[in-house]
Queue: 2 jobs
Job 1
Amino acid sequence: MSDFKHNPVLLRESIEALLIRNSCDGKQYLNSGIFVDGTYGRGGHSIELLNNLDERSKLFVFDKDPDAITAASLLSLRDPRVHVIHNSFVRMEEELLSRNINKVDGIMLDLGVSSPQLDDSARGFSFLHEGPLDMRMDTTKGVTVAKWLEKADIEEIRKVIFDYGDERFATKIAREIVSRRKIRPIRTTTELVKCVLSVVHKTETGKHPATRTFQALRIHINNELEELSLAFPSFIKLLKPYGRLVAISFHSLEDRIVKRMIRNFELPSDFYSKLPLTESELPKPILRSLGRIFPGDHEILENKRSRSAVLRIAERTAAPFSDFLKSYNPYS
Ligand SMILES: C[S@@+](CC[C@H](N)C(=O)[O-])C[C@H]1O[C@@H](n2cnc3c(N)ncnc32)[C@H](O)[C@@H]1O
């Protein structure tokens, strides 16, 4: 396991958001319960959460990355409250059910890629380091970016780079990749960077020309957006009444999914098409948005990676999940 460091983003804000419960006599903090960290990384958020919880509490931590799991396992040896699960958060519900857990007090998500993943050249996530073009978070399965680029056609490559990177030169980059691979497959980060630089000449201020392409390929190869959309309803199902979901996103595609999902569980998207409704037919929201928080200037100065972060907080209401689903489709 690499010992690269990860600086947790919006740390105090996310732990407070997970633990505060508003009661009639003001704010109270939970100091006991069952919590889940869906994206352990190097445990910045988990460790701070554990510091605020008593010895009867439990913390289930997930990560797809074997290095993150090694780090989490070391923590679990020192702290019996920690339970480590090497899997995607998309499998959270079944993994917890198999451990006899069907309700939790809070779920923490700190989405995307960690600093150790970016800094370790062997992982191939960064255009700054020479390494194999891998980019899989879970190195025990799946297809590397290099392998995918060997077979995908121009249109598939263009679509990924455009949709997930919002790259206006997506067509040129896709054509260049396909033309270069006829001579030699693109196997390293440096080869991909050279390929992008040969067709992207205009640079956005402060951004490397390959930033968007690398982001797009990473999101695609790890199925990041699909997994987030798929998993979201199970997070809501798992939360106890007044349990909290706290999610940090780093780009607008992720944040849009979190925002839309929270809104759909507050008021389903087909609500207006069903009007008028009688009082008894009115849906009882099963989730309540508690807003969003951005990092302050001080945090951005200390940790540049935090500049694009947004934290969204939502609270489960006491309304039953099944009633809500009977008449509405929050997945749409
Ligand atoms: C931003 S880092 C989390 C950092 C962590 N909060 C900390 O303070 O150290 C995101 C982590 O989530 C993991 N990850 C991303 N998508 C995942 C998924 N669908 N399921 C489980 N882990 C995931 C990545 O492998 C990475 O380790």
Job 2
Amino acid sequence: MTFRTLPAVPQAALEGSMRDFRVMEGIDLLERCEHFFAWQDVRRQSGTWPFSRSTETGPASTCGVRDDTGTLTEGVNFASQDYLSLSSHPAVAAAAKQAIDVFGVHSAGSPALVGNTSTSVVLERRIADFLKMEEAILFPTGWAAGFGVIKGLVRSEDFIVMDALSHASLQTGAYAATRNISLFRHNDLENCRDRLVRIRNRSPKCGIMIVTEGLFSMDSDTPDIEGLQALAKEFDATLMVDVAHDFGCLGEDGTGHIGIQDMLGKVDLVMGSFSKTFGSNGGFVATNSRAVKEYLRFYSPSCTFSNALSPAQIATVTAALDIIQSDEGAELRRKLMTNILSLRSQLSDLGFETYGEPSAIVSVKMGDEALARMTARALPHVGLVANLVEFPAVAKGSARFRLQVMANHTPEEIQAAARRVHQAYLIARRELETNEAADEKRLSA
Ligand SMILES: Cc1ncc(COP(=O)(O)O)c(C=O)c1O
């Protein structure tokens, strides 16, 4: 593949982060957004803003992608979270179409009123059974489930002890529920215990929720779930685990790290999303208590006051679940894992470090934001669609590419992804060196 030289990148595009615009100056709420827009536009115009892109085909393994300047490029797609490739499975699509014929396109009500259909009730039962829990309740999205389970159960006098890398939905729910939030060091049980000791000494009567994820979506690592549940028991706390990225696609039977760690049915609260493996928007919370399910339905605002999943979404998730629990699902998980291991090993052979344990998220270390942004700029030109992750989603200096692997990626596409990351990285290094040399020349002139 030949690569044409791209225009020079202004230094401003390589500096700053979205964090800089969280606190905004000025009294005009709308005008304040201009500061962010100006910075974003420098990046957009120089090709270093790899966000807000749209595919021409949905999450196919090779696809056309249009950036928000309107430019269309083609590439192998490692930026979609459709881990078992079920969103394009013929049986899943057929189920969604049939549901529209039977129930129409809309649920037209919240689950607290008459938004559920007979099929949503069955899906709740099946999700609970799959996790060996007593009950499950559906939410319109995974975000709504994460936010809602915390906001629904935790009150302002209670405490939340949360892994510092927990997803934004969980953190937003926590800050909406209470000011008493204690972040423990990522996957560090001792640090979690220290915080619980301090809280219980000070507040023997408060409620405490411990929050973590089954598989962390930036680092691809997992906590000791059994250890955290034991801590919850010891301190009269409640453990909540977000399984958005491992439920359905990891473990021999698809029950993710909760299953792998032999904790099915033993975790206080399990919250998940359908948007990574089940081919649809949607989320759920599973519990061993009917009382908790009923309480969430009427006190979790993102459930109570939001429209229920549509019949087509319910049918999509149910058909995806049929496959996930079948031999075909097991075969898709094996294919996915083969792809994951192959991609990690090819990247490593090319000198790249990948984070965490093998999962559908293969995070490739870049480090420096400027280098990562320049690499992101080169990626569309070498034919790879991948997501850049930078501060504040990860720590400063820990920029990375998050390659999301799908079961339907072919060996050739896996090889192309590894090679193209390398190619883009070399281009970026060369361009940065040229930029620096030009700067030095200017300064000494
Ligand atoms: C860990 C985690 N929890 C929750 C969510 C939210 O899920 P959804 O996209 O279904 O709203 C995500 C999605 O990005 C996630 O990564």
